[in-house]
Specification:
Number of helices: 3
Distance between the termini: 17 Å
Helix content: 10-25%
Amino acid sequence: MLSSRRPWRRGEPAPQAYYTFRNGIWHPIEVEGTTCPPGATTPTSFRFSVLSWNIDFMRPCGDARMTAALDHLHGLVRDDPNPAVIMLNEMTRDDLKLIKKAEWVRDGYNITDVGVDNWESAGYGS
């Protein structure tokens, strides 16, 4: 059950932890200051992809649909040398479990939710 107290307020920016997978566990990433190495410069041209998918938590066969969505997304980003940001909307708790188990996600991505603490709804989140 979700707590009635969210760690954020609607309409206000709120920092949120993100996690990386190592040694069999999703670990929070601790960042202090800049993440750029000393002396690094910002490239004048930088390409990345942003993919967004509304999973639609109300549709039937949730696990099969999320598995198919993850397979499709993996096919889109697998051979692209540029980084990708993947945003999934209207996910259920079970969807989050599938995302955390996907080997390609574990190997190449950080995630913002390992649980539902930051979700506004008890039924689904983003």
